[in-house]
Amino acid sequence: MPWGVLLFLTLINLLNFFDRYIVHAVEPILKSEFVLTNKESGLLGAAFVLGYFLFSPIFGFLGDRIDRRILMAAGLFAWSLFTALTALSHTLYTFIAARALVGIGEASFGAIVPGYLKGRVVGTLALNNALALFYVAIPVGSALGFIAGGQIAMQWGWRPLFLLAALPGIVLAFGFLRIAPERRSFPKKEAGAGFIEGWRRILARPELRLIISGYVLNTFALNGIAMFVVRHGTSLGMSESEVASRFGVILATTGLIGALGGGRLASLLAARMTNQVRGLLLFVSITTLLGAPFLFLAFLATSPLIFFASCFIAQIALFAGVAPLNSVLVERAPQGLETLTQGVTIFMIQLFGAAIAPITIGWVADMLTTEGIAGSSEQALAYALQVATAAMVLSGVLWWLASRSNMGEEGSAASIAR
Q1: To 10 degrees, what angle do helices 206-234 and 240-255 make?
Q2: Which residue, among 91, 102, 108, 94, has the nearest Cα to 50 in the 3D structure?
């Protein structure tokens, strides 16, 4: 596939995650302005998920049937417009409504791109390498969100931040007009599968159930940490903007090392195995389990140095598995249902992972404070964040089990051929 198209999609994905994480960066400011509890503050991060998870399967279903360029362009324009409208929010509930609308727009992009790339890249490992570049945008975009969120909000307030975040997407949406249409053909049987039948075929595969379940837990860990990391950092004696900036730099650095390096290393290791899909899954499982102890240490640390160093190592492990995991999802999807599989996955990980994580961790922190189990609210939040560590460990175990499952002749044949 043309490098220009891949870089264009990567840039849009960067904007995608930039937009998501500016909310996390300004969470302390929003909590103060709207006078929120920890649980209500968690709703700020979960609001986006409402539109995202509900509409991802719908766009995934449509993406297997119509021009994906149109869907991606419309989604980019819509989420950018609603990001601008977020700046007009003056209550918790209007903010939640605006962010839910942003999620609808982003659903059309996240659900479609992996399947779109599969249609333009030949081979499992070539797809993994392409996705390794595409998913670098997750940490880099998230890092820019933290840094810009902290700095711009400190200088001008949080509303101008959301207005500025909207402008690039509105412009880039028209760039899809310059991309050549896809040439796609699907087996009649699979392409004719209805929405409910498509779900049934996807979830009928045991390895996909394990992979998606692990992804749910992994997403729970990532989103729970992201929502409260700035506030936790302030308990170690740093300012909000200082924590956001430092964590943003760590995100960008670990993302480049983890996503690019991890994706490449996964390809090299999987190339030595008869079943390349199984090799990619083993890599994801091992890196995740190796990173979990460092996440555990991060929230026990009382020193900023140990906190950031532990986060650095844990995040490399987390990002190393992003491209291999999504490559496996696309490869193991029923033929002709690649984007619906991605849509189903997003539905599950956002509903049971991203949406629940900040609310659950906030609730646990409130409970520990109310019951007097923790000595302070800061300590209660640190304890509550260990729920994310447990979720990370369980995700690695599930992916290991998926790698040991019987993938059938189709998976083995596809791996060997590619």
Answers
A1: 150
A2: 102
d(CA 37, CA 101): 24
Please count the CA atoms within 13 angstroms of the CA of 19 that sit on its side-chain side.
Answer: 36
| Among candidate residues 45, 48, 113, 102, the one with its CA nearest the CA of residue 76 | 102
Q: Measured in whole angstroms, how far is the alpha carbon of residue 158 from the centre of its chain?
A: 23
Global pTM value: 0.78
**Residue 301 DSSP one-character state:** -
DSSP element (H, E) containing 311: helix 304-320
Angle at 58 between CA 168 and CA 199, to 5 degrees: 135
d(CA 284, CA 128): 12
Average pLDDT across each block of 10 residues of the chain; the chain has 418 residues. List them in order: 84 89 82 82 78 86 85 91 90 89 86 82 82 84 77 82 90 88 55 77 93 94 83 84 78 84 88 89 94 93 91 89 89 86 90 86 88 80 92 95 71 38
Scanning 321-385, the segments in alpha helix (DSSP H) are: 322-332, 338-349, 356-370, 377-384
**CB–CB of 391/298 below 8 Å?**
no
Core vs surface per residue 17-55: b (16+ CB within 10 A) or e:
bbbbbbbbbbbbbbbeebebebbbbbbbbbbbbbbbbbb
Rounded to 10 degrees, the C-alpha dihedral 119/342/103/171 comes to: -10
DSSP 335: T
Question: Is residue 184 helix, strand or coil?
Answer: coil
